[in-house]
Recover the amino acids of this structure.
């Protein structure tokens, strides 16, 4: 009997936030293949609401969205003590060093630039879920 | 003569004590009465006895003119004092750029006109003398000069004039003695003339009434004093009035007394009423004496010119006759003295000095003091003038009445009038114009007046009078260009002044004045601008050594006078000249002005120029300096304008810079946005195609869905690339081909193409087009794109179930409006501001992003603005979106229709 239960895909929820349905479709498919529970949001405000409700282990965030940006969503999540354990990965077309810096400064654990490599994205997600 | 000398000496002595009697306005007015010569004294009576009221004209002119002396004469005085002008010739030369040529011409005209005039004074004195000693007169031509009284009179007058007029070098250093003597003589001649008048009226006859009663009994006399309204008489009157107006100031002796000897410009005010009064008094008894003479001496054959003397003599009143003779003598001598002094100054300053200046001796450093030499020249001139006058007297004037020769002189001197008056008030007048006017005027004068006189007196024989010059009839001296019916004087004055004035004006307008002419013109015309200022009027940048200038003053004025002047200058300017090497402009001008007093403006300028270096001054510079105040204003305005321009330019530059920076930023933003927009579909395509590859056992429906997405995203990608290229093209090419098109047709065509799609989507489409064509200048392809973008947007965004679109096109005054209204969700308030910017898309949570690049409206806006129109979103209060496009109409101006 292990006290420290290792997290598995089956009991892990991942929130995907992107205003592009086609990207959400692609990422959702990849996560489902690994067995994750998937939640979806198409803009920043919806994302915050869902995150507060479901306290997902991981949020995959786009930056450029109508309404508030992904950076703001990340900050809001970090400000919420209930979401202390939630990990954040940025998945965005904004790829400059300055953008990456801003992403990490707002509390992200990883920053991936579109167009991404499916395998690389999944490796990042799996690692983060497994080792916190 | 002795009495005169006494008065002269006495007032000179008074003047040195500082008691300047001669600055008194009354003395000044009396000194102007030098105008009344023997011609007035004897000649008026003669004229009245032969032709009635004619004699009055030459007194009416000055009297009419007197009230405006304060304007004209005072201005001349101020100018002359400022520039130390010595004569009327000097005044003219000075005004027109200190021209030597003009000075010589003017001086010659003065000499030629005045010598006969002096000669008639000699005649008058001699005649009076002859009558007194009862010798047979009018035979002077036959006796040798050493027995001729007139000759001795001339000699005495010469000595007297030399003593009076050449005691001081600068005529501006007034001759108090001379002024006092002339004023005294004016009193004497007036009293004497009034005495004889009173004697005739009240002693010989019983007052005016008795006199006129007796006169009206004699038919011949009555005829004389009826004013005849003949044309020739009227013209003669008018012209004599005009030329005497100019004579009162421009006759050399008048100019000398009124201007050169004037030390108190405000005395002019008194003179302007006192002098006319004097003229009235001296003319009051002219007619009574003339009538008396005609009544009493009618059969004696006595010349009417001598009635003034003969009347008392015929009644045995010898002492009265003597007194009257003294009066006549006073009138004649005062005129002769002043006229000769004035002429001698002109001859020496305006003729001799300029001629001698080129000679070696005047410039030679060896000659230490030239002031005595200058006085010598002046004395010699006096002798020459009086000799010439005596010669003329012997040759011609015995045969003529006093008045006619006087009028010839008057008309000659009147030639100065246009250029003097023009010089005072017309800046544009040039030296060339003055020379032309003066020369032509005097030639016409010579041809129409003195020439016939010489012919008539038999000195020149020929048929000139009757047949004209070279036998051309319209060149007859008394009927030039066939103009007959005027008197001789009127005829000559009319033609000479007409030619004079017109050539003066025409040549002035045709020529450009030189720099010095411009400065002098400005000084003369705007004297009051300079008068109260201490600033120097001269704008020439001249450089000279102090020692050179002091040397000049020593040489021309004498060491004593020079020393006085230099001390005065040092006190006035608070400087020590010996300590300075190069002279200031003030000192150069000071030297020139004082030299001008001694040797005339033109010569002084030439001499000072020989020692000073004059920096070449450009016409432009002079023009700038002239009209200083105006120029300063204009200049400051120009500066203001310039600085405003600079400000504007700076502003424009800052704006341009801002715009460039903005453009730069926009470009960077654009690239970032474009790459972002390209990456998004690319990401979907890449991820989904990889999924399809990695999971070959994927169920068919999923596979189908992903392939669909890949296909549409690829389409989106290529559309995006096309539109980016479009937008760049529209914004970079500004000169699109514009042609006349009917916008209504464009809209109609598009609606037709969309018809199928509208029906398929079950949209309720309303189309409102106007009847008339909507002409405009535009590019059809681009405008088509505008309508297509807006219409497809409406189709895209209208309610998906019960779509409704309204398209309205209508003309307003000079533009027309296209409205496209849909019943979709409309544009959220927050987005309205950004709707026309690039890559702005309105998406809705549930539906996600609509298909499109986000460039459509940006492109539409660019095209509309290229057509000088505007596009905006109309507030619809949440009921769908209404896009409004306004474009300017092409207004055809149908000229044929209007007319």
């Amino acid at each position: 009997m292990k006290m420290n239960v290792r997290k598995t895909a089956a009991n892990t929820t991942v929130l995907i936030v992107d205003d592009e349905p086609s990207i959400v479709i692609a990422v959702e498919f990849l996560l489902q293949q690994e067995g994750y529970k998937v939640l979806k949001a198409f803009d920043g405000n919806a994302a915050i609401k869902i995150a507060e409700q479901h306290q997902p282990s991981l949020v995959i965030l786009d930056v450029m969205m109508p309404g508030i940006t992904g950076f703001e969503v990340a900050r809001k999540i970090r400000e919420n003590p209930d979401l202390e354990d939630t990990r954040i990965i940025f998945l965005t077309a904004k790829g400059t060093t300055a953008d990456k810096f801003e992403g990490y400064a707002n509390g992200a654990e990883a920053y991936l630039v579109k167009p991404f490599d499916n395998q690389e994205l999944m490796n990042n997600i799996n690692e983060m879920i497994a080792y916190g | 003569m002795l009495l005169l000398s006494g008065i002269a000496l006495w007032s000179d002595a008074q003047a040195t004590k500082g008691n300047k009697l001669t600055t008194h306005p009354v003395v000044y007015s009396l000194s102007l009465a030098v105008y009344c010569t023997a011609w007035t004294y004897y000649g008026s009576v003669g004229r009245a006895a032969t032709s009635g009221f004619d004699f009055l004209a030459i007194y009416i002119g000055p009297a009419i003119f007197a009230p405006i002396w304060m304007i004209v004469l005072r201005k001349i005085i101020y100018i002359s004092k400022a520039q130390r002008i010595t004569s009327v010739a000097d005044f003219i030369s000075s005004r027109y750029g200190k021209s030597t040529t003009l000075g010589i011409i003017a001086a010659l005209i003065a000499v030629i006109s005045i010598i006969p005039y002096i000669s008639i004074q000699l005649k008058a004195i001699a005649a009076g003398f002859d009558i007194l000693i009862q010798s047979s007169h009018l035979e002077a031509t036959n006796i040798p000069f050493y027995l001729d009284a007139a000759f001795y009179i001339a000699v005495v007058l010469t000595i007297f004039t030399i003593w009076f007029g050449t005691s001081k070098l600068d005529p501006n250093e007034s001759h108090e003695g001379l002024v006092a003597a002339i004023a005294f003589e004016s009193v004497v001649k007036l009293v004497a003339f009034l005495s004889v008048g009173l004697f005739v009226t009240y002693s010989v006859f019983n007052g005016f009434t008795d006199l006129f009663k007796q006169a009206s009994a004699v038919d011949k006399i009555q005829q004389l004093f009826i004013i005849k309204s003949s044309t020739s008489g009227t013209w003669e009157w008018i012209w004599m009035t005009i030329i005497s107006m100019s004579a009162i100031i421009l006759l050399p002796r008048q100019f000398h007394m009124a201007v050169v000897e004037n030390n108190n410009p405000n005395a002019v005010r008194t003179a302007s009423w006192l002098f006319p009064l004097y003229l009235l008094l001296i003319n009051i008894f002219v007619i009574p004496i003339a009538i008396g003479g005609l009544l009493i001496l009618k059969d004696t054959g006595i010349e009417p010119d001598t009635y003034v003397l003969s009347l008392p003599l015929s009644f045995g009143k010898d002492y009265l006759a003597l007194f009257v003779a003294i009066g006549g003598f006073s009138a004649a001598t005062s005129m002769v003295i002043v006229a000769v002094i004035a002429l001698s100054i002109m001859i020496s300053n305006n003729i001799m000095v300029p001629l001698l200046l080129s000679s070696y001796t005047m410039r030679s450093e060896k000659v230490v003091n030239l002031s005595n030499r200058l006085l010598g020249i002046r004395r010699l001139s006096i002798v020459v003038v009086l000799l010439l006058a005596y010669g003329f007297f012997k040759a011609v004037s015995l045969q003529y009445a006093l008045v006619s020769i006087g009028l010839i002189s008057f008309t000659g001197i009147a030639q100065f009038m246009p250029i003097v008056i023009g010089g005072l008030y017309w800046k544009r007048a040039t030296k060339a114009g003055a020379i032309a006017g003066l020369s032509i005027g005097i030639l016409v004068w010579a041809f129409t007046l003195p020439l016939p006189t010489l012919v008539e007196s038999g000195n020149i024989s020929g048929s000139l009078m009757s047949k004209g010059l070279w036998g051309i009839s319209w060149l007859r001296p008394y009927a030039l260009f066939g103009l007959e019916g005027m008197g001789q004087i009127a005829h000559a004055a009319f033609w000479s002044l007409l030619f004079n004035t017109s050539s003066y004006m025409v040549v002035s307008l045709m020529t450009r004045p030189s720099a010095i002419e411009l400065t002098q013109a400005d000084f003369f015309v705007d004297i009051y601008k300079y008068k109260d200022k201490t600033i120097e009027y001269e704008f020439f940048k001249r450089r000279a050594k102090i020692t050179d200038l002091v040397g000049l003053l020593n040489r021309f004025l004498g060491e004593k006078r020079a020393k006085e002047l230099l001390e005065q200058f040092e006190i006035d300017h608070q400087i020590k000249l010996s300590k300075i090497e190069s002279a200031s402009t003030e000192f150069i001008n000071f030297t020139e002005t004082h030299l001008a007093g001694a040797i005339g403006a033109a010569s002084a300028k030439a001499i000072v120029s020989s020692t000073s270096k004059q920096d070449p001054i450009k016409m432009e510079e002079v023009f700038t300096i002239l009209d200083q105040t105006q120029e300063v204003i204009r200049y400051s305005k120009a500066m203001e304008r310039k600085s405003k321009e600079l400000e504007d330019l700076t502003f424009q530059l800052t704006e341009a810079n801002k715009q460039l920076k903005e453009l730069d930023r926009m470009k960077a933003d654009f690239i970032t946005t474009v790459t972002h927009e390209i990456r998004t579909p690319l990401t979907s395509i890449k991820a989904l195609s990889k999924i399809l590859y990695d999971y070959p056992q994927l169920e068919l429906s999923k596979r189908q869905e992903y392939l669909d997405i890949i296909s549409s995203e690829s389409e989106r990608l290529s559309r995006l690339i096309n539109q980016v290229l479009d937008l760049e093209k529209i914004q970079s090419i500004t000169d699109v081909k514009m042609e006349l098109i009917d916008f209504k047709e464009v809209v109609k065509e598009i609606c037709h193409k969309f018809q199928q799609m509208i029906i398929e989507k079950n949209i309720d489409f309303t189309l409102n087009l106007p009847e008339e064509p909507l002409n405009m200048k535009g590019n059809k392809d681009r405008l088509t794109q505008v309508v297509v973008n807006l219409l497809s947007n409406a189709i895209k965004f209208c309610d998906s179930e019960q779509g409704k679109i309204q398209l309205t096109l209508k003309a307003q005054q000079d533009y027309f409006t296209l409205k496209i209204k849909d019943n979709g969700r409309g544009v959220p308030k927050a987005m309205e501001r950004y709707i026309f910017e690039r890559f702005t898309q309105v998406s809705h949570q549930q539906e996600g992003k609509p298909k499109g690049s986000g460039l459509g409206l940006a492109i539409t806006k660019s095209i509309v603005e290229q057509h000088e129109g505007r596009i905006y979103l109309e507030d619809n209060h949440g009921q769908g979106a209404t896009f409004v496009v306004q474009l300017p109409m092409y207004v055809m101006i149908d000229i044929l229709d209007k007319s």
Summary: Chain B has a mean pLDDT of 76. Chain B touches chain A through 26 residues (CB under 8 Å).
